[in-house]
Design a protein that fits this description.
Blueprint (H helix, E strand, L loop, with lengths): L5 E5 L2 E2 L5 E5 L2 E5 L7 E9 L5 E11 L29 H17 L7 E3 L10 E8 L5 E6 L6 E3 L8 H16 L11 E8 L5 E7 L7 H9 L4 E8 L13 E5 L2 E6 L2 E6 L8 H14 L5 E5 L5 H9 L4 E6 L2 H13 L4 E5 L15 E4 L8 H9 L4 E6 L2 H13 L3 E8 L9 E7 L7
Parallel strand pairs: 4-6, 7-22, 12-13, 17-18, 17-20, 18-19, 20-21
Antiparallel strand pairs: 1-5, 2-3, 3-4, 5-6, 8-9, 8-11, 9-10, 11-12, 13-14, 15-16, 21-23, 22-23
Length: 449
């Protein structure tokens, strides 16, 4: 088997990315847009030199199985368009849920963890509160706001995206016309607009963030008034990124016009969300998880909230039990400042500080009865793991966006005497392979930090 080989096969499984799989020459071959039972014709894209894996793209579906669902989105790749953002849209909600739950269960089985509870999402379309768009030129100098297509650098249009909140789709459609009218440059040009981020509140208020190569782009001030005139736009922020990277944002966001902070109720608390800050993309599921986390924390005088971000988890714990004092930390100053203001607005006993948890923990905090962690996909930093190994806390609430790193961290925690008594998987991003975990670890007693 080599790249560019044309193969006919029957799909027999799904991988962790919800791509169809079949076995050929002792290699598991993954194919996007296919489901179990499909008979397909594929072209081999690559064959791993180090693992029994290969990848292929779908040329033709010769026969579809009963599990196949025609994607409702006109841009979905590889079946209707070129956008690869929702790689599982050809699978029914029940098939997606079964496959993701099985993947998480398999990851944790080696640790002796059984019966992971699955919490389905309330909505499978129109749930996403933020979307990032690559800016490119299409035919006839038209502006394309989209995403990079699978297997290349071509920008696929995301016009009419069904995953985002309707307010985002409306603003995106109007914004393209404004960008074309001002002949905004894009891609590698010195004053180019590289990315656009649109974030919408549940009330339909939208903040536009423009990511440009140069803060001196001549068109910025001129375009602001027309963008603010679009129905629903509340404010416009700008940030500069001239680095050779696929990262969207590398610097702070600054307000160009209007009000660039949104307020969104997540669980029991209305969070302040500045432009550029990280917030969970699915507000409904985040609300479920934050309130569930608050339920899982037994009455504790002191709770630490590590990787706190905007403070959503810690503030919900404090709101559920006014006798709890929360101490939170995160490395992003703008998020911590917003968390502090949210705590003050709700009159909660919660305090947040800026700290790089890869280097050290904040000093002079009182000993916790419970610790909350919500790390990035890579998992817990070594400093935090060592703290948890010796902590006097008897409860640990772990929210994870990376099941593989969670499994690795859980192994360390088990060795330190922690025991897992609650584990739940949430469908945070329907139509994608993503799974969010919420777990509670308990330990009868600990040691001083």
């Amino acid at each position: 088997m080599r790249a560019k080989d044309i193969i006919k096969a029957t799909i027999t499984g799904l991988d962790s990315e919800l791509r169809g799989t079949f076995v050929l020459e002792e290699h598991t071959v993954s194919v996007g847009g296919a489901c179990v039972g499909d008979h397909v014709e594929v072209e081999i894209s690559s064959v791993s030199r180090h693992h029994a894996r290969a990848f292929a793209h779908l040329r033709n579906a010769l026969r579809r199985s009963e599990e196949f669902v025609w994607p409702p989105c006109p841009q979905a790749a590889p079946l209707r368009g070129q956008c690869g953002g929702c790689g599982a849209m050809h699978l029914s909600a029940s098939v997606q849920d079964q496959a993701r739950r099985a993947h998480v269960q398999a990851l944790l089985a080696e640790l002796g963890v059984e019966n992971v509870a699955w919490i389905a999402a309330p909505e499978h379309l129109g749930y996403r509160n933020r979307s990032n768009y690559v800016v490119a030129k299409g035919r006839g100098e038209s502006v394309v706001l989209g995403s990079y297509a699978p297997r290349g650098r071509e920008v696929a249009s995301m016009a009419g995206c069904l995953i985002v909140r309707p307010a985002i789709s409306r603003v995106e459609a109007s914004m393209r016309a404004v960008l074309e009218r001002y002949e905004v440059t894009c891609e590698a040009q010195p004053q180019a607009l590289r990315w656009v981020t649109l974030r919408a509140s549940a009330r339909g208020e939208v903040v536009v963030e423009l990511v440009v190569r140069s803060a001196g782009a001549h068109w910025l001030e001129a375009i602001a008034a027309d963008l603010m005139a679009i129905d629903g736009v509340q404010g416009i922020a700008v940030s500069v990124n001239d680095e050779a990277t696929n990262a969207i944002r590398v610097g702070e966001s600054h307000t160009l016009a209007g009000q660039t902070t949104l307020f969104e109720r997540v669980g029991r608390v209305e969070l302040e969300i500045p432009a550029g800050a990280f917030a969970q993309l699915n507000t409904d599921v985040a609300s479920q998880m934050y309130m569930r986390a608050a339920e899982l924390v037994s009455a504790n005088a002191v709770v630490w909230d590590l990787y706190a971000g905007l403070g959503g988890l810690g503030l919900n714990v404090a709101a559920a039990d006014k006798g709890t004092r929360v101490f939170g930390a995160d490395s992003v100053a703008t998020s911590i400042e917003a968390a502090e203001r949210s705590a003050e607005r709700h009159d909660l006993d919660a305090h947040f500080v800026v700290a790089d948890l890869s280097q050290d923990l904040p000093a002079n905090w009182p000993q916790p009865g419970a610790i909350i962690v919500n790390p990035p996909r890579r998992g817990l930093d070594e400093v935090v793991l060592k703290c948890l190994e010796t902590s006097a806390a008897t409860q640990l609430i772990y929210m994870s966006c990376g099941p593989a790193s969670f499994a690795r961290d859980a192994s360390r925690l088990f060795d330190a005497g922690w025991r897992l008594d609650v584990i739940e998987a949430y469908d945070m991003l329907p139509q994608t392979p993503h799974v969010e975990l919420l777990a509670r670890f308990c330990r009868p007693s600990g040691r001083e930090i």
